[in-house]
Fold:
Amino acid sequence: MQTNKTRSATPLDECRVYVGTYGKYNNGSIFGKWVELSDFDSQEDFYNFCKGLHKDEEDPEFMFQDFEAPEIFEGLIHESGFREDLWELSELLEDEDIDMIAAYIKATGSKLDSDTIEQAKDFFYGRFDSDTDLAHEYVESTGLLHGCLKLLSVILTMKPLAVI
Structure:
């Protein structure tokens, strides 16, 4: 097991899995252990630890009977394994706005990868309390309605006249 305690916080810090094996499970045992993924520098280190944990089996087939992970890693960890690039993705997300990237993924249906992270940062416009606040900021900053206010004022003034 290798650990790197000098790194910044990443989503991997919130990932833990309960590691058992299919062999034990099929024989009626749920023996295993909760393991923090952030304790390992790589997937290889993690699997080496798991082999030691289940050294009573010649070739253990690991089973992640339960796991906890942040929303951004949804679908990346499952019963029989996880995406090979989980550690690399976690490093890419270091010092990033995880909630913003997760919202982008949810809105676009994109999968988590380095391109998606960059796209999310490129398209991010800001945080707003409501869609209306976003619209006001966008219209004001882009000048979208510049010159339209005078015309709108005339139209609004004419409406009461049309009733007469």
About this structure: The chain is about 45% helix and 15% strand. The chain has two domains: 11-95, 131-163. Residues 1-5 have pLDDT under 50 and may be disordered. The radius of gyration is 26 Å.
